[in-house]
Amino acid sequence: MTDALTKWVEGYVRAWNSNDPAEIGALFTEDAQYRTAPFRPPHRGRDAIVAWWLEHQDKPGETAFTWQPLMMTDDITVITGTTTYPEETFSNLWVIRLTPDGNCREFTEWWMEHAGDG
Predict the structure, then answer these.
(1) How many Å apart are CA 7 and CA 97, to the nearest integer?
(2) Boundaries of every domain in the chain
(3) Residue 61 near residue 84 (C-beta atoms within 8 A)
(4) What global pTM score does this model have?
(5) CA Rg value for the chain
(6) Do 39 and 88 contact (CB within 8 A), yes or no?
(7) At CA 88, angle to CA 118 and CA 37, rounded to 5?
(8) CATH 1.10.10.10 at 3-113, yes or no
(9) What is the mean predicted confidence (pLDDT) over 83-89?
(10) Per-residue pLDDT tens for 44-58?
């Protein structure tokens, strides 16, 4: 696992729990694309990503997230994760394209609620 990936995911989780616009924005390139599902149109650009995130934010400290890499190349990383909320749990699959400086230029997520939750 690369240090850049670990740093980026830790930053994502920190931003997820803080909802701080500067922390969110620092994760992404100016022209990044963020897809909340594989076939939805992406949120394009850092400002649009931050605005969308803040409109759909979770309460700080509400979630726990564990993860591990599934596949890594020089260009793309796929991780699996588990997001635990007080009342429900989700499995996640993230496709992440980082730049050499460690910012995300493209992010796509898949998520599925665990059976029996909700």
Answers:
(1) 14
(2) 3-113
(3) no
(4) 0.92
(5) 14
(6) no
(7) 90
(8) no
(9) 94
(10) 999 999 999 999 999
